């Protein structure tokens, strides 16, 4: 019996096939899939890949058979190792886990979400109130450079470097901690947009 995610995958590929053969663009197809499947939708690059295959004459929506024995990365041992590494360093990235355990990032992601039940947080929309360069650095830099006329690009670069070098290390630390507080607020409010923190 096919899993629910595999059923979604085959449904999406069938939709990509029909829409591609009717001449629709991968971007439009992807937008429709996102509207129906939300976070379960194929990526736009996957839609492009399958759309091209179908336009070139591919018939099947199933994966091609693969040679050799399938590699199983989601072993009990790997799941335990990922859990242990996450417990010891809650800020470890998927890439770091994958490199340390010689697993693919996809396998690590599957272990984290399907086996350890971790949720993937949506990235909040861009907010100048969350980007340190926007909420702290650029205003001071603009004031510092205001009214200065530069003869060439290199002069601008040197002026910016001097400004950055002259910022006391303590200012960077204070800004880093402000940034952490702002990010905590976003997490506490489940990614809602904040203005003028």
Automatic annotation (TrEMBL):
<protein>
    <recommendedName>
        <fullName>Mos1 transposase HTH domain-containing protein</fullName>
    </recommendedName>
</protein>
<dbReference type="InterPro" id="IPR041426">
    <property type="entry name" value="Mos1_HTH"/>
</dbReference>
<dbReference type="InterPro" id="IPR036397">
    <property type="entry name" value="RNaseH_sf"/>
</dbReference>
<dbReference type="GO" id="GO:0003676">
    <property type="term" value="F:nucleic acid binding"/>
</dbReference>
<dbReference type="Pfam" id="PF17906">
    <property type="entry name" value="HTH_48"/>
</dbReference>
<feature type="domain" description="Mos1 transposase HTH">
    <location>
        <begin position="21"/>
        <end position="57"/>
    </location>
</feature>
<dbReference type="InterPro" id="IPR052709">
    <property type="entry name" value="Transposase-MT_Hybrid"/>
</dbReference>
């Amino acid at each position: 019996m096919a899993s629910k995610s595999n059923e979604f995958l085959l449904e999406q590929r069938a939709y990509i096939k029909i829409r591609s053969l009717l001449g629709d663009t991968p971007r439009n197809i992807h937008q429709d899939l996102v509207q129906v499947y939300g976070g379960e939708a194929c990526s736009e690059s996957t839609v492009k890949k399958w759309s091209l295959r179908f336009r070139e004459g591919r018939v099947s929506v199933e994966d091609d058979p693969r040679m050799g024995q399938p590699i199983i990365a989601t072993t009990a041992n790997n799941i335990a190792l990922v859990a242990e590494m996450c417990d010891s360093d809650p800020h470890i990235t998927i890439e770091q886990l994958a490199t340390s355990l010689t697993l693919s990032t996809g396998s690590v992601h599957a272990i984290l979400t399907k086996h350890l039940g971790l949720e993937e947080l949506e990235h909040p929309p861009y907010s100048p109130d969350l980007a340190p360069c926007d909420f702290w650095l650029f205003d001071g830099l603009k004031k510092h450079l205001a009214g200065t006329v530069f003869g060439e690009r290199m002069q601008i670069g040197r002026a910016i470097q001097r400004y950055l070098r002259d910022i006391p290390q303590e200012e960077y630390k204070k800004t880093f901690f402000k940034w952490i507080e702002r990010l905590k607020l976003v997490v506490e409010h489940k990614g809602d947009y904040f203005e003028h923190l």
